[in-house]
Amino acid sequence: MKAKNSGFFILAALLLIGAIACKTTPPAEPPPPVEEVIVQNPDLLPPDQASLNNLNNLIARSDSARKMVQDFNGPALLPADWNAAEALNTAAVNGKKTATVKDVRDSTALYTASATAYEALADKTIPMYADALSNDVMAARDVAINAAASYLVPEYLQGTDDFALAAWDKYQAKDYYGAKDDGLLVKDAYGVLATGVQAYQVRLDIQDRDFVYYDQANIAAADDIALSALDDYEAHNIASAGPKATDVLARYKQSFAKAQESFSADSMASANVERQKALDIKANVAVKSDFDAADAIYNQGTAAAQSRNFDQSANLFIQAKTMFSAATASATDKRNIAEAGLRAAEQKMVESDEAAQRAELIIEGGSR
Q: What are all long-range contacts of 298-305, with beta carbons under 8 Å and residues at least 24 apart?
């Protein structure tokens, strides 16, 4: 009985210890879930700002080179190279994307090819353009020299030559746009110089031939414009000097033509006066061959005037005037000689009559 109670007691103690143990030890936690790690493709990541800036710089570089090729006439000078560069640029423009690293990398490659093509084309185009412009400048200079610029206005020719050398210095320093602008200005300057020299020569002709008298107001106005054009030229304001020089040349030519016609008419009038004098003294009879020769020249002058060859007609009228005057003088000399002969004959007759009368008186006296 006692052993039975002892066993029961041990069993109860074990149960009590187990119960206490359950109350003091927390239950074991479940293991944490395993996170799934996804490795993203770096090409699909957004691009960094440095890559975007690099792409924008390439786009600007391509656009700048393209504009330079256009500005220096590349499409016309090298059309095949231009078309090839344009194709690369079109591909770059159409393929431009910036959403991902790969997009920017691909676009960068496209614009690199475009910029490189345009820059290579510019390197070939600019020297070709410079050669063509240089030839144009020299041709314009030759025109100015042929117009006597080196003789009539050497200081202005030298000044323009110095300006041309300055433009060449800019080209050598790779200031291509500055060299181009100055080169075009120099070409125009030589052209204006040639026009100005032509105008100056016409003005000298007007002065030398005393033609100012025939169109004084218009010539004075042209002189004022010429001085203004000269001021513009010295200031390298060729855009203003050019039209003025052209206007001055036109005005001087107009005045010169008017003077030529007027001088021809005046010469004809003077020849007419001498012709009438010759007719009044009967030179057409007394010295017929001389008068006819003068009249033939006079008729040639009339025909030239009708054809508006006024310089020729004026010269012919002046020549005819001189010939009519000579014919008048010859006819006058003949008339004077004839009159002197008549007077001498009359004197002889008078003397003969007086001698006869004296003889008659003597005879009559002797007969008495």
A: 298/271, 298/324, 301/264, 301/267, 301/268, 301/271, 302/268, 305/264, 305/265, 305/268
- CA 51/CA 57 separation, integer angstroms: 10
| Co-location of 62 and 138 in the same domain | no
User: Both 266 and 328 in a single domain?
Assistant: yes
Same domain, 214 and 285: no
Q: Please report the DSSP string for 168-191 in residue order.
A: HHHHHTT-HHHHHHHHHHHHHHHH
Co-location of 180 and 236 in the same domain:
yes
pLDDT at 4: 45
What are the angstrom distances between the C-alpha of 353 and each of 67, 357, 360? 118, 6, 10
Q: Look at phi and psi of residue 34 and say left if phi exceeds 0, alpha if psi is from -120 to 50, else beta.
A: beta
What angle separates helix 310-367 from helix 288-306, to the nearest 10 degrees? Answer: 160
User: Is 366 domain-assigned?
Assistant: no
Domain containing 171 equals 131-256
Name the DSSP class of 78: S
Segment 232-291, tens digit of pLDDT: 999 999 999 999 999 999 999 999 999 999 999 999 999 999 999 999 999 999 999 999
| Helix, strand, or coil (residue 318) | helix
Asked, for residue 139, whether it belongs to a domain, the answer is yes
How far is it, in rounded angstroms, from Cα 354 to Cα 348?
Answer: 10
Query: Same domain for 150 and 252?
Result: yes
Has residue 135 got a pLDDT over 90? yes
CA angle 139, 141, 142 (to 5 degrees): 65
Neighbouring C-alpha atoms within 13 Å toward the C-beta of 119: 12
Residue that is last in its domain, among 225, 256, 287:
256
Separation between Cα atoms, residue 1 and residue 9, nearest integer Å? 13
215 and 307 fall within a common domain: no
**145 and 194 belong to one structural domain:** yes
- How far apart are alpha carbons 294 and 327 in whole angstroms? 8
- Its pTM stands at 0.74
Is 1 among the domain residues? no
The interaxial angle of helices 176-208 and 49-71, nearest 10 deg, is 20
201 and 317 belong to one structural domain = no
